[in-house]
Amino acid sequence: MERHFHSEQSRSQLAGPAAGLAGYPKFDESSHSLLKKHLTKDAYLQCETRVTPSGFTLQHAIQSGVDNQDSGVGLYAGDEESYTVFAPVFDAVIEDYHNGYKPTDRHVSDMDASKLRGVPDPEGDYVISTRIRVGRNIKGLGLSPGISRANRRKVEELVVEALNQLEGDLAGTYYSLGSMSEADRKQLVADHFLFKKGDRFLQSAGANRDWPESRGIFHNNEKTFLVWVNEEDQMRIISMQKGSDAKEIFERLSRGISAVEEKIKAAGFEFAHNEHLGFIHSCPTNCGTGMRASVHVKLPKVGAHPDFKKWCEKLRLQPRGIHGEHSESDGGVYDLSNKERLGKSEVELVQTMIDGVQVLIAAEKALVAGEPLPKELTE
């Protein structure tokens, strides 16, 4: 089996017997990561000499959080087994991040779009666009921080073969990052489809190795269904369009995932999944659904209100600027998405987004008209 290690140290040096606390990391006082909080010396001693079947170690898992002291989480899995082999650390981080989700809890998936109710902005005055994405990885082929070069190539081969068989409104074209033409590159940039090399957090985690080999982008002919291959996860599957019809967008996403999964299974593989963590992802924050259902919505009055973030928290929404995490609003336009990932189904989380956005649009109208705020924000 091919193994990969991110540093020049050998396996014996990284996970040798009785290494004790010699490699226990130092954290700045300014660091507030979940890794710093939950990597107790006891947990470290339990996990320090453990190695997953693919050769991933605790040192690999924590490297990003050690290099980047401003991490929010700071912990990555290199394969499915990381979640069990290093359970003393991963379980604590998952329970903290996912609102008390216990090691004994079970996750339930539901991709039935017919259960969704309501359109946040039927007149189209506030919501500019809606986008729903999930992540998927293939069982037995590792996760981006620890995947071998051979397995990354195998992932691209399997996924591209599946994508090339999509039909109807899902049919489209795959563009390899390593061999696309300049004209294709410029068009993908113009469409805002082209993903870039991972940030410093993913760099430290080992997810950028061999860039851009075996990475690419698929989109359907209508540019409403996309798949990023071998980014932070092996697949980032996206459905999007103008307006606020989340049901139509989710239905297309569900069909696309099912079609890809069918082809993957026909090739003798399956998605990485278990009853506890749902769909397995490289970052523990994405386990469960791995889903982010978001809208770009114009809310200048609501966004300027001192209670905006508190309202979003109450509605279980995550606000950010339209240029990504940590960005500011542009002209009163915000990106709003479901905050939760694990312990609730996909349908539940999309419905949470729909309901929450409806409330905030009602609040925007009330603030403009000088009328009382919706009861959902005041009670």
TrEMBL record:
Coiled-coil intervals: none
Alphabetical UniProt keywords: ATP-binding, Kinase, Nucleotide-binding, Transferase
Domain Phosphagen kinase C-terminal: 126-367
GO molecular function, one term: creatine kinase activity
One GO CC annotation: extracellular space
GO biological process: phosphocreatine biosynthetic process
Record-stated family: Belongs to the ATP:guanido phosphotransferase family.
Protein name, as recorded: Arginine kinase
